[in-house]
Design goal:
Order of helices and strands of chain A: HHEHEHEHEHHEHHEHHEHEHEEHEHHEHH
Shape of chain A: globular
Low-confidence stretches of chain A: 361-368
Largest interface: A-B, 34 and 34 residues
Structural class of chain A: alpha/beta
Number of helices of chain A: 18
Oligomer: homodimer
Amino acid sequence: MARRPWPRIKQEVSRERWVEIPEPVREVYKIWRPTPMFRAYGLEKALDTPAHIYYKYEGVSPAGSHKPNTAVPQAYYNKMEGTKRITTETGAGQWGSALSFACQMFGMGLEVYMVKISYQQKPYRKLLMNTWGAEVIASPSERTQAGRTILAKDPQSPGSLGIAISEAVERAAADPDTKYALGSVLNHVLLHQTVIGLEALKQMEMAGEYPDVVIAPFGGGSNFAGLALPFVHGRIAEGRQTLCLASEPASCPKLTKGQFRYDFGDTLGMTPLMPMFTLGHNFMPPAVHAGGLRYHGAGPIISQLIKDGHVQAEAIQQLECFEAGVLFAKAEGILPAPEANHAIASVIRQAQAAKQAGQRRTILFNLCGRRTILFNLCGHGHFDLQAYDDYFAGKLQDHQFTDEQLYANLRELEEVPFPA
Amino acid sequence: MARRPWPRIKQEVSRERWVEIPEPVREVYKIWRPTPMFRAYGLEKALDTPAHIYYKYEGVSPAGSHKPNTAVPQAYYNKMEGTKRITTETGAGQWGSALSFACQMFGMGLEVYMVKISYQQKPYRKLLMNTWGAEVIASPSERTQAGRTILAKDPQSPGSLGIAISEAVERAAADPDTKYALGSVLNHVLLHQTVIGLEALKQMEMAGEYPDVVIAPFGGGSNFAGLALPFVHGRIAEGRQTLCLASEPASCPKLTKGQFRYDFGDTLGMTPLMPMFTLGHNFMPPAVHAGGLRYHGAGPIISQLIKDGHVQAEAIQQLECFEAGVLFAKAEGILPAPEANHAIASVIRQAQAAKQAGQRRTILFNLCGRRTILFNLCGHGHFDLQAYDDYFAGKLQDHQFTDEQLYANLRELEEVPFPA
């Protein structure tokens, strides 16, 4: 078959400094890109901080998050390769929505295996995907062997992301015209997302500043990498001192509590092994509202950068995150996605540190304590208002793990022997 | 009391050509303004039309519609006048959300009387208002005499916009520090919305075109006036031939079936009489999903322009509108609000007419049948997915009125004696 070479595989192992964004992808990007960068004057005032706070807002995309940045090129490359249909899984629905939009733009079929409990609890996310022409199937389903096996054991199974992945992969493996697509973790996905940070570099230049701190939420790594990698390059190639800070949920602390091991990307162990900071592919995070961050491992690129000291991480509990998100909505007007609230909570910590430092310095040296902070507001919370309802109603809680719970899934994994 | 003069009253009766937007309002506008203007390449392709279609997208505002354009200056002017608290009503929730956002920006209190049936059916809209600090009260409530009177007669009353207005007005009338705010119809509201059309004029100039047709949905007039008035000025002052087309729901056809009479702005008859195209203030439109367009009358400015032949109108059934909205979501990626679907349906009619004209002309004269269409995509449909669900499920229907139903509420109203 005279198919074009697989650009996604080539991108996955590329050593090129620059990879061109294809023209048809740019045409679709034009619907919402470049995304706006805002100076958060309202938040600065609310925090009474000398820090300058900027944010890049990815919620203006049709699907409402940063996910279309990779969904669109993945749909395009698949189209070029002759793929007729894509399969994928979705939990909270952000990735499924983004890929539905992208497949619609290129006239491709899409099957989304949506975790059954989400399918039932989030009918609007499903409808959004339907409106863009995707078929959404509650997982486990009767359509695959994986689904039928689960249903035979437990007809009432609420499903899981691991099962949904298995169903999507099984469908893709059974048909040469069908391919499976993943929304984070892998190198080519992170590459696609760097459009965020490249735009941010130019926008910061227009604002006449360069960030001292760059912050983004951390799930599998695409959100964080998208904003931060161009600034990490500034550290490595230009000797800048920028603090690149990944903000992860305390309920799934792969970066701050996990270990650097060879692990699978999926729960069932169907992917190749990858070197990653991980809690083990069997780690089951509690059901927090920031569904997009409930992933056991970190993409290999970010894992290596953590190990090399170019990226820092902190874990934040969800009550602090929602408190930060509500403050942000009041101060800036935009209602953030629960995932984005993690970045906001980290920003507030940094801004308060800048304030304390500024006050100390004012007393001791009369120096300016200003600090420039840039963060990724990766999406809006229009489909996550149930989470805010639960927060206001006092139904959310923080999570504490025992060491046994955290490390039980790591024992069998091989340590990565790479040089530190 | 040394209060500043009432700028909103002055604006309501202003004869000035230009009214400056205050600096603090511009500061808040910066969160989402200027809004993007798009060339709808995807829709043009889907329709195979020679027409050039542009749209101004107001859904990028924090509340997701054009309503903050007037909510922000209204909150600001109230703040300047010394108002401590604003009251308002909301049905579907767009206006209540916008005013909640605006009041939060200026640190003002807000009481929103939300029609009880909407309060129960749309908890997410309520939560959005709560997140921005507004108090949302299901109407009819025990808080007002109007509410108590209704509840005494019918404890299970689902409420109505008329009742909610009465409650909000009663609360404002009872306290000198509290004022009532309205989201459409009045001259100062239309004035505030013209920021849309003024931006569009500049953006069309950047695109090197001038629209032959300008289209917007029509409820009370603020959405339509916001985009169209600067182009109506082009007709009157510059002799241009632009067709300015208001797209109203066939379920509430005040422009195409109503009459030009003196009528009240509210259902209970508490406002001054205004000259308006109306179906009568007691007209009760059926429960269609485009809640923002369920209003009995048209703002006086637009009514006079209709009478003078500078503005045209057409009424469209809701099934055609949802069909148009789904086509748009697939072609352009953005999920439109049900109100916006009316404009899209009108655009599709115009584009198809351009296509037919173009084909005829190609045969007869070999002339280009191109036509430039501009419309207002006044909001996104993220909180309206139940409407799309009902549409997909075949639960929506069109509405036919008898003359008796349409004209029953007009008999007692006085005709406007103005010169035609």
